[in-house]
């Protein structure tokens, strides 16, 4: 089966992979290429000169102020959290 949509760099769950392939992020973590199984995004409007970023293996504390709040994912197929 082929899909017209494509994932973002293999960050989805394997259960929804149209190619039945192990996602890139899972493989990178399993092989020790990244230290933790966490990824984060910094989304910028370029008001301060920074570009948006994808951080693999954690977070960059220089890109935010405050505490990180973690929420459990309610469905291991999509990134769905309880409201």
Return Rg in Å.
15 Å
Structural class of the helix and strand makeup? mainly beta
Oligomer: single chain
Order of helices and strands: HEEEE
Question: Can you summarize the main beta sheet?
Answer: 2 strands, antiparallel
| Poorly predicted segments | none
Q: Give the number of helices.
A: 1
Number of domains: 1
The shape, in one word, is: globular
Roughly what is the average pLDDT, rounded to an integer?
82
First-to-last CA distance: 33 Å
Major sheet strand order: 1-2
Considering DSSP H and I runs of 4 or more, what fraction of the residues is helical?
Answer: under 10%
Q: Which range does the strand content fall in?
A: 15-25%
The number of E-state strands comes to 4
Explain this structure.
The chain has 83 residues and is mostly beta strands. It has one domain. The chain is 8% helix and 18% strand. It has 1 helix and 4 strands. Strand 3 (73-76) and strand 4 form a beta hairpin. The protein is globular.
Identify the notable features of this structure and list them briefly.
8% helix; two-stranded antiparallel ribbon; 18% strand; 1 helix; 4 strands; mainly beta; 83 residues
